[in-house]
Amino acid sequence: MGDDGARLRRRGVRAPPTHAALPSRLIPPAGDACRRRPFAARRGVTDDPGHPIAPAARGSGFDRGDMSPSGDMPSPEAREESFTLANIVPQDRDLNEHLWAGIEGAVRGLARRYGAVYVVTGQVFDRAAPLRLHDRVALPSAIYKAVLVPGVGAAAYLAPNAPGH
After folding, report:
1. 135-153 pLDDT, tens digit each
2. Domain residue ranges of the chain, discontinuous segments joined by +
């Protein structure tokens, strides 16, 4: 993404991002944004014009979870840039819509209250044999978010990427 958006780290061409770091000074007070266009493949991220997550996620029970939520971006331009397949991870629908949405909302609340919050979001993969969605996309076994509020404290969240959370 652009210079005013999150920083993404990737392991390889077909792997989802391993983590995203977002300093809270970028989290706007409103915190919520609507997507105006569909997720798009990002040039240079994959040699496959139909990025593997796009077709693999359809009908799978997995959402396209944002590593860095668009609502945390500092400007309309950065929000638009966040709608790239380079910023998504296969995330269990129940986890994404419930627990994870609550965690993201709580982090936005901390940013509004304290003004300086630093966030790193990432994925955990089974080292022995990572599961794959339709034999294409590596599925994280868990998703994490580490949060630092300077001078106040820190917390980390680790959630299994499975139904019921």
Report:
1. 778 889 999 999 999 999 9
2. 7-160
Largest CA distance in the chain: 45
- Confidence band (pLDDT; 50, 70, 90) for 18? low
pLDDT tens, 75-129?
888 888 888 878 888 899 999 999 999 999 999 999 999 988 899 999 999 888 7
Token representation of residue 66: 């944002």
**CB-based contact 122:19 (threshold 8 Å):** yes
d(CA 161, CA 142) in angstroms, rounded, equals: 5
pTM for this prediction: 0.70
Q: Hey, what are 83's tokens?
A: 């709608």
Q: Which long-range contacts (CB under 8 A, 24 or more apart) does 123-127 make?
A: 123/16, 123/17, 123/18, 123/19, 123/89, 123/161, 124/158
From the list 143, 157, 125, the residue with the least C-alpha distance to 63 is 143
CB 88 within 8 A of CB 67: yes
Architecture in CATH of 7-160: 3-Layer(aba) Sandwich (3.40)
Rounded (to 5) percent helix, strand, coil in the chain: 25, 30, 45
